[in-house]
Structures are given as structure tokens and as C-alpha cells.
């Protein structure tokens, strides 16, 4: 097991390196150098910029140096906690990102729990009652959940709430609490608003999870050892919980690896629609205005989250299912 | 007597059964697949639905009653006009729409529309209306449906925020949104077959490198990556180039799944007896690949392709919806849904969500069709 973990962690490092290259490539991708476009934007607004500031910025980002030097410098700063400077917000990137990452994490984690709590019992029911009315209903809902784009679901929810109850479901906090410092009341307020993104984000994941778990469990239930156990007089309940369920649990575990990044990236679109104070809208804005340091750091961080998620799920899978370790 | 007929009937059915069995023995692989596919009713219906949508995509200029870019200030957010067959005088074979009178709400000053039952505009098949170029080549002005009296309006699905006919826009958007899936899948297909094939056929170092690259691409969060890449497309590019840029970006990630399937198939089939037999009979490598290997996994490839297309369509829609994909004046479903982002506009004119409903139908159809194809791809399994 230890060897397996070590192998996974060793894979982790080069992956991170390549991700940093890709992220930096994205920063450099837009034509022209960002400082020039930034200055042009400032001048068009009639603002004069102090030449010494420009010189400082130029040196700070090493714009007078070749690309690979700039990349090394960027990585070096990253390792030391300097995520760069957002031109649009005129603030350090780390400060802009901090709060939003926390909220993104809360939303993602909440969605994951929601997905599990809903998918788990339904999958077991569907597998043990195959071809029953309930199974057909859930299968149909599952297909629908996979087929409907999540931003559509969000739009429809918002629309129904607004048209029928005049309620604005968007956002994660009540209006008066948006700028307030963290307090118990604010957390309670957030929990009240949280269900909308959870339902919207969780629908597709829940549908997918039900399908795979159901299929897995059905495969397991047809295996000879189940017949043997039943012939020996094990109660149905114990029989189900003891072995087949454990094997069928694999998608839940491997789900963690996809859930974390999937949610973080899926949340990008949903949070724009629902106007959530998470990373999505900020990333979108950064990309739209070509605020590339902010965008690059975002991509870097989201990718790192993805890889960490995969790492965790790999280790958990190796722990739950020893067969995987020896592949 | 009764008994005898029963017996002959039984013999008859037995004979029929044998015939059916013999038919199965001599049937080609594709025939077997078709028989199996036919049994999956949902997939069959979905296939018909998709053919219908692609026909719309091909003939959208002719099917659309109006020019989708024509702005009409008077009819901003005009509600859908129902098609009627019955009026005070009774039933008419020729359907008609009532006139629409724009006005303002005296209190809120919001634009409202009154249905004017005095004015009736009959709808005709094959009328001459807004000129267009079919497939960009043939200059025409014939439309499938329309009014002969050009003073009336016919917003069958309502109008958008510039008074453009939503139905016409939806039909034009179908062409862009559906074709982007096909173009993207073609690029993914070529990349996937080449790279996955090489990886599976040569094995060793090539395989190792390709597998690492695929793992890496799949470990990147796709949506932020897409967003970043599409944001990097130069703003001054013409629409057609942006269109291809977006498809290439979408295919960059799409090929990995396909390459995996192809590689797995190659690895599994390489050791099969019929490949050995072909080799012993002196067939060249190229012949083995193209005549023996590819046909035996082509059906799997087609099935997994079908399951990849909805993802592509959804991605394009999401990107355009966010304003990073295709941009107006190009019409795609995502661009149409941009209007629905404003929740207040949506509350007053819910017909803006119709493109979303179409998307759901198409995505579901692709999913069902792919499911059926996947089951049929292996006709020998029970």
C-alpha cells in the first residue's frame, strides 16, 4: 500500500510541472503583451501612468527577458506565495482568489455530499428492484438529469421561482449580508441559499452515479458467490451489505477524483448563471478582459485541485479495492 | 381435424423458427446489428428525431419563414402567435394567425401586445418572402410557410429583444449547433484513430508516452481550459474562423476518449485467431489493419462517437452562452440562450427558453441513439 501511495505521489509532481507550463502558456497566449494593452486601456480612459511604475511592472514580470525566464520567474514566485498581480482589479491575485476558493470548496463539497446521499439509496433500490415501476421512474429521471444542461436547469429554476413567487434565488447570501464579515448569522444565511446550487450542480452527477452504481450492483448480484451465500441462508439484507455493495461502491470512491475537479469546473458556468461569489464568475471576467495573470493563476489552481482530487481517489480506491494496487 | 391443423401449425412455426435461425447464420455483421438495433425502440425513435433535426439543419433557409437577422423595433419581445383553425364563422381548412397590435402599459410603460381578432392573416405553404442564398449558392426567396399579406406578422415562437423571429433564428441556430458537433467529432475521430491506433499497434514506448499525454489532458479541468482557449481567440477574427477555432478547441479534449477505445480494441484484437490466420495467409500489415482490424471495431467506434457528439454540442452551447464561444451575428443555440440570461426578461417572455428545450430533446436523442448503437455494436452477445 505504501509503495502504491509513493508511486502515485511521484506521478503527482511531473503532472503539476506540466500543468504550470500549460497555465503559463495560457497567460502568454493572447496576442500582444499584457502590460501594453493595460497601458492602452488606462490611456484611453485618460489616466496618465507614472513611467517609473511601468518600469517597475516591466521588471517585476521580466518582460524584457525571454519566455522561459519569465516562466521560471512566475513559477518561482508562485512557490513563494506570490500569485501575480491582477491588472483589472489592481490587487494581488492571492487576495482576490482567497475568499472565493473557500466558497467554491464549500459548494463543491456540499454538492458531493448531496449527490451521495441522494444517489446511494436510489441506486440500491433500483438494482434490487430491477424493472419495477420505481426503477423505471428513476431511470427516466436519470436520463433526463444527464440530458439537461445544468445551466438550463439553473435558468428554469430561477425563472420558476421568479415568475411564481417573485423570489430571486441567485447569489449565496442575502443582500444585506453580502459585504458583512463572517458570523454565525452569515453562515446560516448561506446554508439557506445553498440548496439551489447544490440541486443544480448535483443533478447530472447524481444521475450518472445512480446509473453506474446500479449497473455495477446488478453485475455483482448475478455472480455465483451471491447464490452460494443465499443458499447458505444469509438474510437478504446482510447478503447485500456484506459483499456486493462494497464492490459496487467503487464508483463512489473514484467519483471523488472526478467530483472535485468536475464540480469546480462545472461550477464555473452555474455560478455565472446563479451569480455565486465563487471562482467561476471571476475567472470568466478575467478571461473576458484578458486579465491573464488572474486567469492563469486560476487555471493553475483549479488544475492542481483536479490532480489532488485524482490523487485522493486513487489512494482511496487502492485502499478499498486491493486488486487495483497490483495492476 | 382440429388436432391436425394444430399439428401443421406447430410444424409451420418450427419451420419458420429454423428459417429464422438459418437467416441469422448467413446474415452479415451489419445486418445482425440492424436487427439488434431495431429492438431498442427508444434508440429507433431518437434516430428518426435526429434525422429530422439534421434535415432542418440542411434546409434551414427554406424552412425559416423570415430572415433571422431582420430587426423590427415595433415587435420587440412579441409573444408567440397561435395558429388558429376556428374563428367566429366556424372551421377553416386554411390556418390563420390573428393580428398583433403593439402598445404600452399605461402604468409601467412596458411594451404589451394585444391580439386583434378583427385582422386575420391566412398562412400559406410555399410563399415568396425574404430573399436568401440556399447553402450560400442559390439565390432564392421561396419559404415553406408564410403570409402572403406582408403587412401582418407571424411570430410562431415569439420575437427576441430586437424583434427578430425566434423560430427562424432557432432553425438557423440548428445548422450551426448541430454541425459543430459533427465537425468536432470528425477532427476527434481522425486524431483518435491515428494516435490511439499507433499507441495500440506499436505498443512499448509510443504507447507509454501516448497514455501519459492522454492521462494528463484528462486531468485538466475541461471547462476552465476551454474558456481560457476560446478567450484567447482574437476578437477580430471573422465568424467562420471563430467557428473552426471553437471546434478545434473542443476536439482537443474530445479525441482522448476515442483514442482510448481504439487502443483497447487494437490490443484486444491483435491477439485474435483471425488476425493470426490473415498473417499466416500472407496478408500485409496494411491489409490486416484496414480489412480485418478496423471493420471489426468500427461499430464500437461509431457508438462511442455518437455518445461524444452531445458533449460537444453542450460545450459549444455553454461557451456561447457565456459569451466566449460564437458571437452574434452568428446564430447558435448558445447565442440564442444568451438572451435568457436576464431573468427579468425571461419572466416576461418565457419563450426565450424554447432553444433550451430543443437542446434537451437533441441531447437526449443522441444519448438514446448512442445507447442503442452501443448495444447493437456487439450483435453476438445476448
Report on the structure:
- The complex is a heterodimer of chains A (327) and B (382).
- Chain A contains 15 helices and two strands.
- In chain A, helix 12 packs across helix 13.
- In chain A, strand 1 and strand 2 form a beta hairpin.
- The longest helix of chain A has 38 residues.
- Chain A is globular.
- Chain A has a two-stranded antiparallel sheet.
- Chain A is mainly alpha-helical and 327 residues long.
- Chain B is α+β, with helices and mostly antiparallel strands.
- Chain B has a four-stranded antiparallel β-sheet with strand order 1-2-3-4.
- The longest helix of chain B has 38 residues.
- The two termini of chain B are 40 Å apart.
- The mean pLDDT of chain B is 77.
- The chains are: A mainly alpha (327), B alpha+beta (382).
- Chains A and B meet through helix 1, helix 6, helix 7, helix 12 and helix 13 of A and helix 7, helix 10, helix 12 and helix 13 of B.
Summarize the structure.
Chain A is built from 15 helices and 2 strands. Chain A is mainly α and 327 residues long.
Strand order of the largest sheet of chain A: 1-2
Amount of helix of chain B: 55-70%
**Helix share of residues of chain A?**
over 70%
Tally of extended strands of chain B? 4
Beta-strand residue fraction of chain A: under 5%
Key attributes of the depicted protein:
heterodimer, A: 327 residues, mainly alpha, two-stranded antiparallel ribbon, 15 helices, 2 strands, B: 382 residues, alpha+beta, 4-stranded antiparallel beta sheet, 13 helices, 62% helix, 14% strand, globular
Task: Furnish the topology, listing elements before pairings.
The complex is a heterodimer of chains A (327) and B (382).
Chain A: H1 2-28, H2 34-44, H3 51-60, H4 67-79, E1 85-86, E2 91-92, H5 93-128, H6 133-147, H7 150-165, H8 184-221, H9 224-231, H10 236-242, H11 244-248, H12 250-274, H13 279-288, H14 292-320, H15 322-325
Antiparallel strand pairs in A: 1-2
Helix pairs in contact in A: 1-14, 5-6, 5-8, 5-12, 6-8, 7-8, 7-12, 8-12, 12-13, 12-14, 13-14
Chain B: H1 2-26, H2 29-39, H3 41-58, H4 60-63, E1 84-87, E2 90-104, E3 111-134, E4 138-147, H5 166-202, H6 204-219, H7 222-231, H8 239-270, H9 273-280, H10 285-322, H11 333-338, H12 343-348, H13 354-377
Antiparallel strand pairs in B: 1-2, 2-3, 3-4
Helix pairs in contact in B: 2-13, 3-5, 3-13, 5-6, 5-8, 5-10, 6-8, 7-8, 8-10, 9-10, 10-13
Amino acid at each position: 500500500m505504501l509503495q502504491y501511495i509513493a508511486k502515485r505521489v511521484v506521478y503527482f509532481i511531473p503532472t503539476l510541472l506540466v500543468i504550470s507550463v500549460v497555465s503559463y502558456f495560457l497567460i502568454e497566449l493572447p496576442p500582444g503583451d499584457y502590460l501594453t494593452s493595460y497601458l492602452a486601456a488606462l490611456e484611453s480612459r485618460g489616466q496618465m501612468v507614472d513611467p517609473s511604475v511601468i518600469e517597475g511592472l516591466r521588471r517585476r514580470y521580466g518582460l524584457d527577458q525571454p519566455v522561459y525566464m519569465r516562466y521560471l520567474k512566475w513559477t518561482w514566485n508562485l512557490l513563494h506565495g506570490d500569485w501575480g498581480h491582477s491588472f483589472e482589479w489592481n490587487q494581488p491575485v492571492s487576495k482576490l482568489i482567497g475568499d472565493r476558493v473557500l466558497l467554491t470548496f464549500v459548494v463543491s463539497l456540499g454538492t458531493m455530499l448531496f449527490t451521495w446521499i441522494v444517489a446511494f439509496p436510489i441506486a440500491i433500490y433500483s438494482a434490487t428492484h430491477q424493472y419495477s415501476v420505481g426503477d423505471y421512474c428513476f431511470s427516466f429521471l436519470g436520463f433526463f438529469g444527464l440530458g439537461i444542461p445544468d445551466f438550463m436547469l439553473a435558468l428554469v429554476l430561477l425563472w420558476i421561482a421568479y415568475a411564481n413567487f417573485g423570489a430571486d434565488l441567485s447569489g449565496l447570501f442575502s443582500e444585506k449580508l453580502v459585504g458583512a464579515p463572517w458570523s454565525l448569522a452569515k453562515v446560516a444565511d448561506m446554508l439557506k441559499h445553498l440548496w439551489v446550487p447544490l440541486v443544480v450542480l448535483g443533478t447530472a452527477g447524481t444521475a450518472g452515479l445512480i446509473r453506474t452504481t446500479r449497473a455495477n450492483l446488478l453485475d455483482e448480484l448475478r455472480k455465483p458467490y451471491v447464490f452460494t451465500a443465499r443458499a447458505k441462508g444469509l438474510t437478504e439484507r446482510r447478503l447485500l451489505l456484506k459483499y456486493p455493495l462494497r464492490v459496487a461502491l467503487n464508483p463512489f470512491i473514484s467519483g471523488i477524483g472526478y467530483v472535485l475537479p468536475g464540480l469546480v469546473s462545472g461550477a464555473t458556468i452555474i455560478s455565472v448563471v446563479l451569480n455565486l461569489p465563487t471562482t467561476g464568475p471571476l475567472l470568466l471576467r478575467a478571461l473576458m478582459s484578458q486579465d491573464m495573470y488572474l486567469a492563469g493563476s486560476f487555471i493553475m489552481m483549479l488544475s492542481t485541485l483536479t490532480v489532488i482530487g485524482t490523487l485522493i481517489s486513487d489512494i482511496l480506491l487502492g485502499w478499498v479495492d486491493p486488486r487495483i494496487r497490483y495492476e | 381435424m382440429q388436432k391436425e391443423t394444430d399439428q401443421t401449425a406447430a410444424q409451420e412455426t418450427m419451420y419458420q423458427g429454423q428459417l429464422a435461425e438459418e437467416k441469422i447464420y448467413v446474415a452479415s455483421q451489419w445486418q445482425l446489428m440492424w436487427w439488434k438495433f431495431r429492438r431498442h425502440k427508444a434508440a429507433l425513435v431518437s434516430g428518426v428525431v435526429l434525422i429530422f433535426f439534421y434535415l432542418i439543419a440542411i434546409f434551414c433557409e427554406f424552412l425559416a419563414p423570415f430572415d433571422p437577422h431582420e430587426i423590427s423595433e415595433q415587435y420587440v419581445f412579441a409573444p408567440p402567435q397561435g395558429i388558429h383553425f376556428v374563428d367566429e364563422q366556424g372551421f377553416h381548412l386554411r390556418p390563420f394567425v390573428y393580428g398583433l397590435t403593439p402598445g404600452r402599459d399605461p402604468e409601467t410603460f412596458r411594451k404589451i401586445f394585444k391580439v386583434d381578432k378583427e385582422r386575420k392573416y391566412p398562412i400559406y405553404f410555399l410563399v415568396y418572402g425574404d430573399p436568401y442564398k440556399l447553402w450560400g449558392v442559390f439565390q432564392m426567396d421561396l419559404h415553406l410557410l408564410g403570409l402572403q399579406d406582408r403587412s401582418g406578422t407571424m411570430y410562431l415562437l415569439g420575437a427576441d429583444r430586437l424583434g427578430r423571429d425566434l423560430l427562424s433564428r432557432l432553425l438557423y441556430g440548428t445548422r450551426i449547433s448541430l454541425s459543430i458537433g459533427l465537425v468536432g467529432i470528425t477532427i476527434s475521430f481522425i486524431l483518435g484513430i491515428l494516435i490511439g491506433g499507433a499507441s495500440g499497434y506499436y505498443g512499448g514506448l509510443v504507447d507509454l508516452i501516448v497514455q501519459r499525454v492522454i492521462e494528463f489532458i484528462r486531468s485538466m479541468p475541461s471547462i476552465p481550459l476551454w474558456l481560457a482557449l476560446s478567450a484567447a481567440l482574437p476578437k477580430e477574427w471573422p465568424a467562420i474562423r471563430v467557428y473552426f477555432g471553437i471546434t478545434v478547441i473542443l476536439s482537443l479534449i474530445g479525441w482522448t476518449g476515442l483514442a482510448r477505445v481504439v487502443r483497447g480494441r487494437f490490443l484486444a484484437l491483435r491477439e485474435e485467431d483471425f488476425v493470426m490466420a490473415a498473417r499466416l495467409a500472407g496478408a500485409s500489415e496494411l491489409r490486416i489493419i484496414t480489412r480485418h482490424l478496423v471493420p471489426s471495431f468500427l461499430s464500437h467506434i461509431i457508438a462511442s462517437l455518437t455518445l461524444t457528439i452531445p458533449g460537444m454540442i453542450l460545450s459549444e452551447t455553454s461557451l456561447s452562452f457565456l459569451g466566449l464561444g460564437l458571437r452574434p451575428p452568428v446564430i447558435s443555440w448558445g447565442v440564442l440562450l444568451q438572451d435568457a440570461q436576464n431573468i427579468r426578461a425571461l419572466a416576461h417572455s418565457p419563450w426565450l427558453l424554447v432553444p433550451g428545450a430543443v437542446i434537451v430533446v437533441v441531447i437526449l436523442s443522441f444519448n438514446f441513439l448512442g445507447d442503442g448503437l452501443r448495444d447493437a455494436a456487439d450483435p453476438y452477445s445476448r
